[in-house]
TrEMBL record:
It is found in: Cell membrane. The keyword Signal applies. Residues 1-25 form the signal peptide. GO terms for cellular component: plasma membrane. SUPFAM superfamilies: Periplasmic binding protein-like I. This is Nucleoside-binding protein.
Length: 334
């Protein structure tokens, strides 16, 4: 009887522990707020989705999400989920800066993680990236690959953050080819610029007509228009944020990877395990927060000698031998 009693007690304790673990998982309520452009934009938002989905697949914990159609919805969405006592609200995009600052003050017990903006509050974790470093590397590739000596940059919304991409790209290309020429365009000055692939394609075709043979598009979903123009013109485009090499194999030279997926996954994982901390974290080449994509879709476009050159330059940036220029105010707001 005593043995049976002990066994029963052990089973009850194990069941209690298991149910407690399940309850804990159910109690944790993370939220992901996308930027304008849609979840499946093949770029910034989709990278965030992949990070959140990896967290869900690993833990079995569902997350709530919201796709805004205008910036006016940023603060509304933040307040709605904060009132529902979300355990962590992850917002992707510098456009959330003002809204996060306002809402985080009102809900000091809610944790917020924001990507691409820096908010100095005790309940806000800011994660930014050294996009200029990753852009420098794809600039090196463009400089080494260009046959015409003229490359292009296509920015989405004309803001300091996107000018950071353009500056790094130009510096990288001129590091290996000082006499290279760069044509630069921005799709617009409002958030609509992120979701206008038709306008992006028009501008890209105009650049290709002027002798540009490689365009780096840092324009969110609008960048798909640049890739289409590259395919139609028989030229090259460089993707951004996510690996876009497979969008038009043979015409996407590479993609400047910005590991938004890892940032979202890490934030949710840390919050779930009570290891989340407020403050500012910067992810560059050293932290593997940025880089360039090499896979079966573009391996033939980047020969081994070029890869060795790029990797050597990558190591020199990490060591501090090469300092990549930056743009002031890149992580403030629109």
């Amino acid at each position: 009887m005593t043995a049976r009693f002990c066994i029963c007690i052990c089973m009850l304790l194990m069941a209690a522990g298991l149910s407690g673990g399940i309850a804990s998982a159910r109690d944790f309520q993370p939220v992901l707020l996308y930027d304008i452009g849609g979840k499946f934009d093949s770029s910034f938002n989709e990278a965030a989705f992949r990070g959140a989905d990896a967290f869900r697949a690993e833990t079995g914990i569902a997350y709530r999400e919201f796709e805004p159609t205008s910036e006016t919805q940023y603060e509304q969405a933040l307040k709605r989920f904060a009132r529902r006592k979300a355990d962590l609200i992850v917002s992707v995009g510098v456009g959330y800066a003002v809204a996060i600052r306002n809402v985080a003050h009102q809900f000091p017990d809610v944790r917020f993680t924001v990507l691409d903006a820096v908010i100095d509050l005790p309940n806000v974790q800011s994660i930014t990236f050294r996009e200029n470093e990753g852009s420098f590397l794809v600039g090196v590739i463009a400089g080494l690959k260009s046959q015409t000596g003229r490359i292009g940059f296509m920015g989405g919304m004309d803001i300091p953050l996107i000018r950071r991409f353009g500056r790094g790209f130009a510096e990288g290309a001129r590091y290996v080819r000082p006499d290279i020429d760069m044509v630069e365009n921005y799709i617009g000055t409002t958030p609509v610029a992120w979701n206008d692939p038709i306008r992006a394609a028009e501008l890209a075709l105009a650049q290709y007509t002027r002798g540009v043979d490689i365009i780096f598009a840092a324009a969110g979903p609008s960048g798909l228009g640049v890739i289409q123009a590259a395919r139609d013109s028989g030229r090259f485009a460089i993707g951004v944020d996510s690996n876009q090499n497979g969008v038009a194999p043979g015409h996407v030279l590479t993609s400047m990877m910005k590991r938004v997926d890892l940032a979202v996954y890490d934030a949710m994982t840390e919050a779930h395990s009570d290891q989340w901390t407020a403050g500012h974290e910067i992810r560059g080449l050293r932290e593997e927060g940025v880089g360039y994509a090499l896979d079966e879709h573009n391996a033939a476009l980047i020969p081994e000698a070029m890869r060795r050159r790029v990797e050597d330059i990558r190591a020199r940036i990490i060591s501090g031998d090469i300092i990549v220029g930056d743009t002031a105010g890149a992580n403030v707001s629109h």
